[in-house]
Amino acid sequence: MFIINENEKEYRFGDSGPKYLMKGPRSNFAVVQFNAGQDFKAHYHNIMEENFFILEGEVDIIVDGTTHTLKAGDLIHIEPEEVHYVVNNSSGTVKMISTLAPYQESDKIEVD
């Protein structure tokens, strides 16, 4: 068991990107923030499934070429091998939760 406060971790890119509160042993849990116009490179996972739960704002998540515009309260579940791309096309900040399971040390394949 452990307890952690979000303020104890930093976003990967300073003021944006994922902020992992837990990495393994069975799943990852991250707070993710993107400012207007920011994105995260298209990728997929061979083994891990990924969920995004939108806390604040609006974001476009493109899965296998289909755009899904999500807002606060929405959840999207992405299966292994589904290519997904996250972009904040809104004028505000988006904040969401990301979970990945089952935990793998390395299971992200970037796509051009």
Automatic annotation (TrEMBL):
Residue limits of the Cupin type-2 domain?
31-98
What Pfam families is this protein classified in? Answer: Cupin_2 (PF07883)
Q: What is this protein called?
A: Cupin domain protein
